[in-house]
Structure formats: C-alpha cells, structure tokens
Amino acid sequence: MSNSRRWFLRALTAAGGGIAVACRGTGRDAPAAARSLLGAPVDDYGERSPFERIARRVAQTTTPENSSSRTPLQDLHGMITPSSLHFERHHSGVPNLDPAAHTLMIHGLVERPLVFTVEELKRLPSVSRIYFLECSGNSATGWRPVPQPSVQAGHGLTSCSNWTGVPLSVLFKEVGVKPEGRWFVAEGADACKMARSIPIEKALDDALVAYGQNGEALRPEQGYPIRLLLPGWEGNSSVKWLRRLELVDSPSMTRDETSKYTDLMPDGRARQFTFLMEAKSLITRPSAGQKLSGPGFHEITGVAWSGSGAITRVEVSTDGGATWADATLQSPVLPKAHTRFTMPWRWEGSEVVLAVRCTDETGFVQPSRAELVTARGVNSNYHFNAIQGWKVQADGAVIDAAI
Amino acid sequence: MSNSRRWFLRALTAAGGGIAVACRGTGRDAPAAARSLLGAPVDDYGERSPFERIARRVAQTTTPENSSSRTPLQDLHGMITPSSLHFERHHSGVPNLDPAAHTLMIHGLVERPLVFTVEELKRLPSVSRIYFLECSGNSATGWRPVPQPSVQAGHGLTSCSNWTGVPLSVLFKEVGVKPEGRWFVAEGADACKMARSIPIEKALDDALVAYGQNGEALRPEQGYPIRLLLPGWEGNSSVKWLRRLELVDSPSMTRDETSKYTDLMPDGRARQFTFLMEAKSLITRPSAGQKLSGPGFHEITGVAWSGSGAITRVEVSTDGGATWADATLQSPVLPKAHTRFTMPWRWEGSEVVLAVRCTDETGFVQPSRAELVTARGVNSNYHFNAIQGWKVQADGAVIDAAI
C-alpha cells in the first residue's frame, strides 16, 4: 500500500474527515431486542431484503412493449449484474414461451437442415463465460448532449452475466454450412420477429446459443428459453427468444439493420453492420444524482469494458481531465466483460470534475467526446463511448458534466 | 477439436444416437400463433419464467429456524450460483435487519475501538472477488454412507458468488490491533449469537466484511446487511449478520468451535479449528435422480473447487475409476471459486459408473473415500471431500454409487 493511501486510511478516524466513531458511549451498537427473536425459516427460493428497493429505470419509448429499462449501475457492486436488474430493450414485449414447445430451426444454405428442441440443445457441448451485453443505443444522449440525472438514466443499457450455451460453431458443423453460406439471419420468436444478419465468422469465433444466465435459466426478458449471444457486439444483434437461423449468402437487409441500428455520418452516408462495442468506462460512485456526505475519504468505483477484449488500464481524473492516475482493477479481468475498478480518494470539499477513461488489450484508448465527434459527427444514435464526467459541487451534490 | 470429439458430434445426426431431427415435415417448428401477440412490458425488477421451478431443497434438522436448504447443483450452469438458490444454514433463522440501524463494533485488544454504520463501511476501500462458500457439513453422509437421492441432497451445501466488501485488514489497521491480539471473535446479530474465533492471519490475508453479493446487496439469508467472508474456509466461520469483532489473545472456545464444527478422529481426539475446505469436485449432470434419455452423445459437466487456491486439473472416469481423462475447464478458473468443467461423452447404453477428481494449485489431489477414511476414520461429521461416483444403469437411471 502506498504512503498516500495509508494517509487516506488513517484520516478515517481523524476529527475532520472521520467516518467511524469511537465505540464507547456512542449508543450506536445495535439494540439488543432485535437479537433476541428467532428469524425466518429456510426457504426454497430466496428474495432480497424488504429494505432493498433498487430497481431498473423504465424509459418508455412508444408503448410499454416497445420500451427499455436500465440497470442501476450506481447501486451495484462487483462485475456481475443481478439477473433481475439486467437492462431490457424489447420491440414488442416479452413473450412467455414454453420451453417444451420451443424449437430452433437451422436451415438455408446448409447440407442438413435441422430442428432442435431446448432439451436437445442442452445435451450438446456447452461453454460458460462471463460477458457484458450493451445496447448500441446506450449513452446516446452524448451525441447531442442532454444532461442526465444519473448514470443509470444515461448509461444503464449495459449489464454483465455468466452465460452458458452451445457454441454456434457446433451447431453449424452439424448442419454442414455450404461454402456460399457467408452470413446467417437470426430471428426471434417475439411478435416483431426481430431479425439480424450476422457474418459467419462470428459463429465460428465465440457466438453461443445461450440458455443459462448467472447459473439458472435465461430470464424471460433476456430471451428465455434461448437467445443468440454475440460477445462484445451490440446487444440488438444477440437476438432473444431465438427460433430460427437461416444461412444466406449476403445480409438480408432487415428493418433493424437498415432503418435502425445504423450510424449516420456527417457526409450523409450511414455506417452499417457496426457490431463492435468499443471500449468504455463509467464512474458509478460518485455519479450524478448522488450527494457526498462531506469532505474526507471516499472510494471512486465503476466499471470498464471492451468488445475487443480485456481491459488493460483504467485511469481516473479528479481534476476534469488535466491529470490521470491508474485505478485498481478488481479480479477477474476478463475479455468482453465488465471490469470493476476502484480508487481511493479524499474530497477536500471544493468543486471538482471526476472522469474515467480505459484502454483495452488492442491498445484502443476510450476517446474524448471531441475526438469521437471529429470522427463521426453528431448525427448518430448509436455507439457513443466517449469519456463521461461528473461534477462534484461544493455542497457534495454530483451532476452530469461534459469534459 | 480432437478426432474423437468430432466423431461424437457427427453422431448427433446419425440414426441411432440422433438428437436433432431434419427440419422438413417434422412439425416441430414453433406454432405461429404464439408469435403474433405482444409480450409483457418492461419491468423494474425481473423474475424468472413461470416455467422454471428449480428450488433449494429444505432439509429440516430440528426446527424450521435451525435448518438448511441446499443448492440444486444438478440444474445449474456456469460458475455463479443465483442468489435466490445459494444454500442456507442457520441456527436461529434469518433476522430481518434494518441496515440503517445495524452497526459493526470492533473492540478488545485494539488501540481505538470503533463502531461503523453500514453506510460508513461502504465508503471505505472495497474489494470484489468470486469465491465459493461451502458448509463444512456438506457431503457428510459420505462418512457413514447413506445413498443420496441427488447431488443436491448429498452435496448442495456449496455455492459460488461475486462478493464485495471491505478488507478486514483495512478495518483492523484503523482500530490498531495490539500485538497481543492474535485472534478475533466474530459474532452475528442472529438470536443464537453465532460466534467463531478466527486467527488474525486470515484477517490480514483475504478476509472481507462483505455487503455485496452478485452485484446487489447480500441476501437476508446470507447475512444482510453485512457478513464476515473468509475465502476458502468452512462456511460457518464466515459469520452472517455480523455485529461485533473482538480482538483477543486466544480462541474463545465458543459453542460452535467446541461441541460443533470439530472432527472426531479414530483415537477419540478431535481436530479443532479445521477451517480449510480442501479440494473437491462433483459431476452435476448426469447425477443421481436423473435419467438419460437414451444412448448416444451426452455432455458430462460439474464443478470443482479448493479452499487452497485455483483448480489446475479435473479428471473424469466413465469406468468406475479404472481410467481417467482430463475434462475441459471453463474460464475463468479462479482461486477459491467454483470451476465449471465439461467433457463430451457417448453413452453406449450399458451400466457404467461415472466419477470425477480434481487437483489444486498446491498439488493436492482429491482423495478416494478409502484414502480419506484411512487418514480420518469415520467418526467425523465435517470436511468430507472424497470422490463421488454415480452409476448409470442400463435403463439410463442414475443412482448414488460408492467407488
């Protein structure tokens, strides 16, 4: 532990920045009465404490079924997102599918078109990995800036889970993809028939047909009973409630890869099939909408991730980007997964702007907004990954801040 | 991929061991009607599908409050245990604690006794790690064997979570442990005042006062709002609903480290303070109580873990222990965490005994029951970690089998 860090910690008990209080005569010990009663019995499926109220933030777009809900990043710990708080984005609501009746058909440019039941998929070789999933529309208000009330409201369309499923490469080997099968169309069983065209290379790399999420079955809003999972790629392409994979020779130009999920550039042309979610990081505490209890020691923490691989460095600035210092990465640091970072910090009580930027294993450094806008203009609605600042005001209140 | 594995996979579509069916004319595609309706709207806190019924198995010992419930290992995927399905073991039920009123007192042989509120603990430097937690009474029926109906019934007192909390070393630095403070007593706020004596070295190593579990707050049955977490050590020592840490010069000889949680040896003496949970592995699918659908390809999967560090090798036998083959370890492979393993297997339809053994980074190899009993006799109720076999009968039914 560095000398400066040791100083921070000693300061906890100093008069000015003290956190804990001396234990004698404080009256702060738990009341004895609360400890004299038997508690609740064991149960078959647990629930959270009634004192816990953190929730996804519903941001209705047009109808309750064509809407999104955002992960409360400011309240979370570690790298795993609780399944109950994984962000949602659906275009026609969450179908209630019976796994005994659901099937996956693989057809098109293949030697042996096949239909698999969910039970059959579970008998096949499986892979388990921890991967983030981020909607490409996350942080979209950064393009044409609107100050956001919280990290959840602005950036809560990213989550991270332990996924389990069958490698798509196994399934494609079974059906025997013909040489001209260079793309595949994935179609969901939701009413909008969500469909995306995906290049065959992703199937042969790390794509899964997933049925497990954080140890149990996929949650309904994450595609129960099966979904496509394309690690590191925009969430929309990981088609939920997956029912059909059709091998084709070129993209099908579905609605959600033409009128949506494309990036309009300054010259009026649109980037298409921009699947990769590039490196990004967020300070989740302190963040907008929170208020520091007072000067003294505070931990700065958050998450960083990259669709290109593992995060190698996270730097935090407490002076609006003038200087940067390395944060500690909490293990494990995994490719295409949220990485939790922490940094000790002493707030002196004056206005400061906090910011974070990350670097991934390809050497890619998260850009400033100016750098991002220079490259892509301000017409896009997707793939915003610039540095996000938070201003700590003199009273401790934290607000959204451009840097 | 090896030739033998490729052969397994091709066999999926062969007439005899086929899994999937050709898709034309099978009538197995999902009914169109189910896809034409809008689904459920987004929600603030998700729940699992109504089709999912897996549950902890309640094994009442004396009263509903002094009882345990076991994780359904046979139904889980990956390395993370869903918080709702984490095993439970309480001696006086689950207290419903208000985090705003709960405190942690650290006193005894210290320079500055202190009381921390939960909010104060959350301001301090934090650590996040993925660790298993196993009750030392897990698998206890192995000492004086009673065939178990399932891996859950026999071995379900182990789970694995992403924990977040304050290093105990940080707290102990703050209070200034006196040189004679060689142990500490951790006491819970449950009605039985669960208390255990722990050597100071563990506090200075990797012990946490944890408040986060799988991204959100600890669940009530896991110690909400705070618990001690001693990675790799028997679950009982990771005191839940933690309210007090008293630095002492020697163990306090509490009830749960004298009359309980000690290991009676063949010579009549008892091992005490046997905190370490040594390396262990379990095949979770196929396992007792399940039935194979028929000959052909099946994946063998399960978990391995060690309180001494990372798992380095998992070997599976499909002939009752006569020969062994290396299983694939799913990443990440982390110290003191469940490691998911997988192995492709073709069942020929005759009776076989499956088994698994693991090796950890210290070189420790999980023992056979004969080896374990030679060392420790059969009087103990704790720390059973011998190899577990499962017999696949000719009809596909799987039962508990000694090997």
The total count of strands of chain A amounts to 25
Residues in β-strands, percent of chain A: 25-35%
- Oligomer category: homodimer
CATH top-level class of the largest domain in chain A: Alpha Beta
Explain briefly what this protein structure is.
The structure is a homodimer of 403-residue chains. Chain A is mainly β.
List strands and helices in order, with pairings.
2 copies of one chain form a homodimer.
Chain A: H1 3-10, E1 21-22, E2 57-60, E3 67-70, E4 88-90, E5 103-108, E6 114-117, H2 118-123, E7 127-134, H3 151-155, E8 158-167, H4 168-175, E9 183-188, E10 195-199, H5 200-205, E11 208-213, E12 216-217, E13 227-229, E14 242-248, E15 263-264, E16 270-271, E17 280-285, E18 296-305, E19 311-317, E20 325-326, E21 328-329, E22 339-347, E23 352-360, H6 369-376, E24 389-392, E25 398-401
Parallel strand pairs in A: 5-14
Antiparallel strand pairs in A: 2-3, 3-4, 5-6, 7-8, 8-11, 9-10, 9-14, 11-12, 11-13, 15-16, 17-18, 18-22, 19-20, 19-23, 21-22, 23-24, 24-25
